[in-house]
Amino acid sequence: MTRQEIIEQRVRDFTESFTGSGERTLKELSEFCLEKRSTFVEDSARKSDFNEGARSVILEIRHWLDYDLSKFRKEENE
Question: 48: number of CA atoms within 13 Å, CB side?
Answer without folding.
Answer: 7
